[in-house]
Structures are given as C-alpha cells and as structure tokens.
C-alpha cells in the first residue's frame, strides 16, 4: 500500500513519512487485535470491501481511457525472441499469479461455521476463483489498455494507470 502511495504523491517518498505511516499501521493493527475476534472480523470485512470497491472503480473508470492501439501487437516481437524488456519481467508477472490466489486456504477453516460444508466449500472455492480470475483479467485489460507496452517500465502499473485515468 505504501509503495503505491509513493507513486501517487512525492510526500510518501520521504523516509520519515513512509516509515512513520508503516509504524502507525502496525500499531493500529495491534490495537485492533487487542479488541478481539469480533472487531478483527469487522475490520477484515471492511478492508475486503474497500479493496473490491477500489478494484471495481479502477475497472469502470479505466475502461473509458483504454486506447485500442495499446493492444497491438498482442505479443511484442521482442517477447517472441526471448529478449528485451518484455521477457525479463516474466518472473515478476508470474509471481503475481500466486499473490492473486492467496487466501483460499482460509475458506476450509471457515467450514465449521458453514451449513453443509461438504457441498458448499467446493462451490465457494470455484466461484471465488472464477470471480478473482475475472477481476484480475479485467484489471490487466484496463491497465494494458491505458499504458500499453510501457506497462513494464513501472513497478506499480495499476497505480500509474489509475493516476493517468483520474489525473493528478
């Protein structure tokens, strides 16, 4: 989160501000944990809702700033040769796939609170994976549509694409 904020405002590039906010976040989560499971669950649900809303806002607003020319060629020539800036970022892009699908291991933990978990857990896992895949595919589609091949030049391409869509 702080890395994204650094790209949006130079204020967050200041080490004192950056680490001050990081320490503040750690203290905040520690205090939240002291209030017990009910408050942690509420904060977790609010945090998840905020993330989903942010993703949907990016997809909806960003869709209006897509440039068709950013999709041609679909596979840049340098990538097919195995050289150039496109191929060297493959490892980083591949690691995002693992990040995208984290958290699924917690669904079976909730099984004891579910009705008919043998039937519902497979349905929940499949529907969550399909939803996450669609959302991330739409995010990538919008980001590529806004940034094009320059996307590989940014460490936080979604933040940069969102900034280009909504302005400074």
TrEMBL record:
The chain crosses the membrane at residues 16-36, 48-66, 86-111, 123-147. Keywords: Cell membrane, Membrane, Transmembrane, Transmembrane helix. It comes from the Bacteria. This is Amino acid transporters. The keyword Kinase does not apply. Signal peptide: none annotated. It is found in: Cell membrane. Coiled coil: none annotated. It is a multi-pass membrane protein. Gene3D superfamilies: Amino acid/polyamine transporter I. It holds the Pfam family AA_permease_2. GO terms for cellular component: plasma membrane. PANTHER family: AMINO ACID TRANSPORTER-RELATED (PTHR42770), MEMBRANE PROTEIN (PTHR42770:SF7). One of its GO terms (molecular function) is transmembrane transporter activity. The keyword Magnesium does not apply.
